[in-house]
Fold:
Amino acid sequence: METPTRNPAAAAGAAAATRTKRPAWRRRQALIAWAFALPFSALFLVFMIGPLVASLLLSVTDMTARDMRDPLAVAFVGVDNFVTLFQDDKFQAAILNTIYFVGVGVPLTIVVSLLIAMALNNGIRRFRAVFRVGFYTPVVTSIVAIAVVWKYILEPDGLLNQALSGIGISGPDWLHDTHFAMPSLIFMAMWRNMGTLMIIFLAGLQGVPTEVYEAAKVDGASAFQRFYGLTLPLMRPTILLGVVLISVYYFQFFEEAFVMTGGGPLDSTLSITYFTYNQFGYGNYGLASAASYVLALTIGLVTLLQFRFLRSKG
Amino acid sequence: MTTHESTIAVAEVAEVVVDEQEPARRGRSRRRRTEGPNRWYLYIPLVIGLAVTILPFAWMVSGAFKTQSEILSGQFSLLPNDATLQNFRDLFTKFPFARYFTNSVVVAVAIVLGNLLFCSMLAYALTKLDFWGRKVLFGLVMTMLMVPTVVTFIPLFVLVTKLGLVNTYGALILPFLATPLGVFIMRQFISEIPDSLIEAARIDGASEMRIFFTIVIPLSGPALATLAILQFLASWNEFLWPLVAAQTEDMYTLPVGIALISAGSNTVNYGLLLAGATVIVTPILLLFLFLQRYFIQGISTTGLK
Structure:
């Protein structure tokens, strides 16, 4: 009686043993893998994911610096912070200024970097490395430190205006004139960031085979036709990468304004990040978090649109 | 979700760029130097552009050695009439600039070391080990590549205050000890180490720890160098977080120090500020000139600042 009932049990036991053997090995590997992932993941969770979620939560509360002792006792205010923000003249100004900075700065930086990259890639033969290093140099410098230098250059009687007066132009007080403060900051941002894009574009251009150009030349395509018909379509993924990277960066502009203009004159260079920083300084943590989320969502949305737009064409 | 999708797309494009770049470099660079058109007229805008690009650095160094009276005189010469070290002396005696410098070095070195270790450990797990939650973890890390610092700094400040870390090295270092960019770089590189090599070591009975430290790390030299440079640079130039987290002069980093000297005085002492800028920028410029290959590789392989 015992043997027939025992046999299937034993068989089942053996089957279970072979079945659990792999999972046991796998479980061990998963454990080791998590041990490798743990230090990063723990720091990442506490100092990045946690604050990211907390910031969203803060944005729907009325938390201020006075609630620091007991941050959990704050009141839920729904979308009040966002309503307050969009009714705030300063925040409206900050949004428009940020759009101005990105809307002018991004195309300008892209075009200038692409021109430099094309000239270095296929226009000249000597001193390429010198130009590459030279144009890249501003990228490695501290914005804050270099903003001090630009502020000095842009003073009413500074280097730039002295040079301009040499050719008979009397330059404005660049950083204290509501019309010229923002263009000055945009120019400085372009100066500092074109090196990054130049390198990315050079890498992209080197992937375009020269034979294609030679063939187009033989067929009588003009320089403009070659650029429009060959370089642009072939460079599309690289340009897209450049546009996305530089936009994400420009949307967050702050340091240039902090040192050079203090957000002024008359809030004409107040950015969303600067607005957030100021509200944090006043102790309005809930409102500041809401402002920072507006910026993050804008960046996410614009990036998505850039991908849709630049990918679908061509 | 939107940022997640776009980050992955950025990663894809970045990979395309890298893939395209590599064979081109090897195959063509030598030939190119002698071939191709040489349009002499292009040198005119390029040289002017380069002059405009470099001039601020020259102006910074020259101003740093000028006397206050020469700066105020409105005379502009690239070489100081009466070169002086007074600005630097003031910087280090009237302000604790040496302390700022030490702080910047300590913070940057700690952040570099932390990232080298933690990012490569995670990258090894992500590429060479199979575990539950791997894809989710990677997705999360890549998503955070796109999140602006301004979004996290307020809760971070609350957290650091609650932990009693405000105005300490801990506050300046911990939030940057494990950065997504590092994982991105290390993962690209480690994934190209052949699986067979690691399998062979496993069959020989090597533990994963041993494989990691004796095979993966020694083979990852170039990626580690790139990561170290990018992190050092990012930390050295970081501004918003140290501005918030350091509250007394003895914890300022260099950028915070110079920004607050600049904002704090009514009459701007440019000689002093330019000397400060020179102290901040020069070490990085030297590093860049000696290691430019790694800097530029870092940019073109990651596409990130």
Summary: The radius of gyration of chain A is 28 Å. Chain A has two domains: 2-58, 81-312.
